[in-house]
């Protein structure tokens, strides 16, 4: 029996996770692989709409206790998803009004049971430019120093997550104009 892959893709806002994961799923579908692609934030948003949240970028402005309920509910739905390859597009931490808050605390990480953790990377300048150019989202204004800090936190959180879950960790650079290359590296690393 072929081992099922549960791939969790993370990286700071605007680094290009969704762009890269879209390409991964396209590649896998063309190969005939049974793949499910889920954006954790979209599953949260389905519940958030019921309590009057209008935009996905407003969820992180809710009290952390409210976000936590949405997070737990999304993680239990996603935990039940079963396919040869499950791709989960999510965040290591959320910048809330109450401070940096873990996106994948112990219970959530354990429920998702990842086999592979992928940290999508780019330089602070590239990330700043991508956030500014993307008018589809309401991203927080951040200085280059703050982006450097976010990258540092992301690396630390990824280490902790690997220890909790026993999954492998992969750093993948999403270079300017080269999301296809980043996707190809991930496909090769997960071995399908
Ligand atoms: P969020 O965490 O907010 O969901 P994200 O990490 O999913 O962000 P994307 O929405 O995929 O990021 O990308 C942010 C912006 O950067 C988009 O406008 C996208 O087109 C652009 N982008 C992504 N990857 C690249 C790349 N390799 N080169 C140039 N632009 C890119
Ligand atoms: P995204 O489109 O990936 O940016 O997701 C939209 C929003 O969903 C994020 O800005 C967060 O508010 C929320 N979100 C996504 N993943 C998580 C998570 N693992 N834990 C808590 N909130 C999350
Ligand atoms: Mg995204």
Going by CATH, the homologous superfamily would be P-loop containing nucleotide triphosphate hydrolases
Name the hetero compounds present. Answer: adenosine-5'-triphosphate, adenosine monophosphate, magnesium ion
Count of helical segments? 7
CATH topology: Rossmann fold
Radius of gyration, Cα only, in angstroms?
Answer: 16 Å
Name the beta content range: 15-25%
Q: Report the mean per-residue pLDDT as an integer.
A: 97
Helix- and strand-based class? Answer: alpha/beta
Shape: globular
CATH top level label: Alpha Beta
Low-confidence stretches: none
Compute the number of strand runs: 7
| Strand and helix order | EHEHHEEEHEHHEH
Overall number of domains: 1
Instruction: Give the termini separation.
Output: 14 Å
Indicate the percent of residues in helices: 40-55%
The main sheet comes to:
5 strands, parallel
* Side-by-side strand order of the widest sheet: 2-3-1-6-7
CATH architecture: 3-Layer(aba) Sandwich
Your description of this structure?
- With 192 residues, this protein is α/β, with parallel strands linked by helices.
- It is 48% helix and 19% strand.
- It has one domain: P-loop containing nucleotide triphosphate hydrolases (Rossmann fold).
- It has helices spanning 17-30, 40-50, 64-79, 106-112, 124-133, 144-165, 179-190, and strands at 5-10, 35-39, 85-89, 93-96, 99-102, 116-121, 168-173.
- The strands form two sheets. The protein has a five-stranded parallel sheet with strand order 2-3-1-6-7, sandwiched between helices. It has a two-stranded antiparallel ribbon with strand order 4-5.
- A hairpin with a 2-residue loop joins β4 and β5 (99-102).
- α3 packs parallel to α4.
- The protein is globular and about 45 Å long.
- The protein binds adenosine-5'-triphosphate, adenosine monophosphate and magnesium ion (MG).
- Magnesium ion binds at residues 17-18, 89.
């Amino acid at each position: 029996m072929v081992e099922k892959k549960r791939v969790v893709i993370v990286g700071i806002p605007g680094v290009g996770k969704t762009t890269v994961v879209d390409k991964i799923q396209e590649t896998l579908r063309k190969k005939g692989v049974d793949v499910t692609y889920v954006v954790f934030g979209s599953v949260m948003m389905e519940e958030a709409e019921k309590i009057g949240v209008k935009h996905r970028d407003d969820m992180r402005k809710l009290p952390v206790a409210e976000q936590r309920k949405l997070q737990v509910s999304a993680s239990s739905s996603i935990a039940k998803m079963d396919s040869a390859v499950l791709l989960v597009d999510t965040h290591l931490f959320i910048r809330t009004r109450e401070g940096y808050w873990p996106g994948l605390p112990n219970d959530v990480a354990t429920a998702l049971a990842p086999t592979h953790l992928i940290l999508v990377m780019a330089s602070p300048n590239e990330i700043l430019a991508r956030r500014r150019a993307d008018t589809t989202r309401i991203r927080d204004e951040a200085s280059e120093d703050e982006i450097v800090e976010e990258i540092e936190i992301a690396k630390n959180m990824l280490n902790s997550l690997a220890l909790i879950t026993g999954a492998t960790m992969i750093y993948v650079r999403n270079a300017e104009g080269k999301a296809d290359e980043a996707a190809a590296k991930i496909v090769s690393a997960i071995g399908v």
